[in-house]
Every structure is written in structure tokens, then in C-alpha cells.
Amino acid sequence: MSKWILLMLVLGIGAGMGMPEAFSGFLDAASSYMLLILLFSVGVDIGANRGVFAQIRQLGLRILVIPLGVILGSLAGGALGAVLLQADVTEGLAIVSGLGWYSLSGILMTEAGNPMGGAISFLSNVFREVLTFLTVPFLAKKHPYAAIAPAGATAMDTTLPLLSHYTDGETAVLAFVSGVCCTLAMPMLVPLFCS
């Protein structure tokens, strides 16, 4: 499956390079509707598995361990990356604080007066999502909970169908919760490290 994902991505990039601009608006709308259909399908799949919700209730606050690990791991990676690249650690933390939400994190950094950091944040988070599509099929085989981590905030939307496909219903619910927590944390983290 990951070969198909990579192939479709490459074909999409090629098609996008030669596509008339008028067609891109249609694609934006079509992809939004397709994502909604995928999310509805995942929701039906999760809702049909009654045992999942009992397991989630048993976990209680422990359900927050995964999103907390995703956030702290992302921040640690950003700090380490900044040190290795001899860059400003605070800027590195701001860049990775996007947690995969590329459409907003770059804008927040740019509005905070760092357009270069905003561009890097955008690209970093786009690459994070692409890496999620490429790594989840392999991670999910042996470590399904670890497959949630690369998705970050996208675990609640664009990468949720992929996570649902390669894991089970319980992991899909945990992924959704993790994505929601990352999505809620991101607008607080980016400005915190940008100031």
C-alpha cells in the first residue's frame, strides 16, 4: 500500500506542475469532500466496534500518554535538530510545534515576524505528513501505537484513514484523541516559542 501512496504522491506532483490554475480550485473542493467521506467511513468503523469505547473508558486519563509523548518527542526532536544545525533552539521548537498542521503553523510564525521560519515550518510539517504516509504501514505491523506519533495533529483528519486501515479500532480512536490534543496544543505552542 505504501508503494501506491508514494506513486500517487509523485504522480500528483507531476500532474500539479502542468495543471491550469483554474482546475486547482476544483481539486481543493473535491479533496475536502473526499476527506469528509473518508472520515465518515472511519467513524462508522470505529462506532461499529463497541468494545473500543469500553477500553477507552478503562484507560481514563492514561489516554493522554500518547499525545503527550507525541508533543514532547516533537519538541525534543526540534531542539536536537536546532543544536545539530547550530540554529536557534527556540526557533527550532517553534518550527516543530506545528505538530503536522502545516496550513496554520507557517502562518503563525510568519505573523510573529519570522517569514523564513514560517516557510521552514510549513515545509517541515508537510514533510512530516508525507513521512507519516510512508512509515505508518511499516510501524503499524509491530508497534501500532508508535504509528500514531508521526501523524501529530493530522491523526484526527488526513492520516486517520491510513492509521485506521493499518491498525485496529482501538488504535484509531487513540490516534483521533492524539490528533485532537495536538491540534489544541499547536496554536498555544507556536506563539509560545515565537515570542
Features:
mainly alpha, 195 residues
Please, could you describe this protein's structure?
This protein has helices at residues 2-17, 21-48, 50-59, 65-84, 89-96, 102-111, 115-142, 160-166, 169-194. α1 packs antiparallel against α7, α3 (50-59) packs across α9 and α8 packs antiparallel against α9 (169-194). Helices cover 78% and strands 0% of the residues. The protein is globular, with a radius of gyration of 17 Å. It is built from 9 helices and no strands. The protein is mainly α and 195 residues long. It starts with a helix and ends with a helix.
Order of secondary-structure elements: HHHHHHHHH
Evaluate the radius of gyration.
17 Å
Number of helices: 9
Q: Report mean pLDDT, rounded to a whole number.
A: 82
Helicity range: over 70%
Q: Which structural class matches the secondary elements? A: mainly alpha
Low-confidence stretches: none
Largest sheet: none
Strand fraction equals under 5%
Topology:
Elements: H1 2-17, H2 21-48, H3 50-59, H4 65-84, H5 89-96, H6 102-111, H7 115-142, H8 160-166, H9 169-194
Helix pairs in contact: 1-7, 3-9, 4-5, 4-9, 5-7, 5-9, 6-7, 6-9, 8-9
Q: Can I get a quick summary?
A:
With 195 residues, the chain is mostly helical. Helix content is 78%, strand content 0%.
